[in-house]
Design brief:
With 116 residues, this protein is of the alpha/beta class. It is 19% helix and 38% strand. It has two helices and eight strands; from the N terminus they run E-H-E-E-E-E-H-E-E-E.
Length: 116
Amino acid sequence: MKMSNALASLAVADVAAAGSWYERLLGPGSKPMPEVIEWQFPGGGGLQVYAAPERSGNGSCTLIVDDIDDLADHLQTVDITDAQPVSNEIVDTLMIKDPDGNSIAFAAPRSAALAH
């Protein structure tokens, strides 16, 4: 069996409230079901935010970005100011938490070979 893609998902207490925060961060999402908002990314994969109050705030995901500095500027623009940078010789990373407490890492690999 060959896997062809992946979809990250994060549980939130209130999908409408979380959706407005995530749309500031990622732009408009699609709503395939009333309790789900999702984003598809150009390189494949995606992110779903879904209503599950009993599980909210316990998730984490990593989103790959091309330019960590552009992302840092964007976060400031949308008033997300709690980003924590973590870097090493392989990857530059910014860590944030959504309003429910889910951890989101944005990673910019330093080698193009690692980005795929």
